[in-house]
Protein: RidA family protein
Amino acid sequence: MNVNNDVVKRYNPKNIAKPVGQYSHVTKISRGAELYVFSGQIGIDQNNNIPTDFNQQVTNTMNNIVELLSSQKLTPSHVIKINIWATEEIDWDHFYAIWNRVFGSTPPSMTIAYIKGLGLPELKIELDVWAAG
Structure:
């Protein structure tokens, strides 16, 4: 069991295979917590530019998530689940370098899907974030 805060607890049960990536199999939310559902976050920067480089979109997306959480007085430890939608193969070395910096040793639950397209043709990745606080 890994405890991130008083609201969110993470587990990787011993009776199932270890996660194949850097995520937690189970994320438990304490009773009475508020649930936050955010719109999908994309790789747009503060000047409303969407870079063509996939890894820069990943970096911008993660920065946007941290800022969005902060706007609600939440931290990455409050994130319970992230769904990742990508239109091209993820550079896992780059992705996990940022992921680990943001979420540390007890990352949230995660689902990944490769899809044909996102809401705008220039988007290459979008992260759907759920949090509790």
Notes: The chain has one domain: 2-132. The chain has a mean pLDDT of 94. The first strand starts at residue 2 and ends at 3.
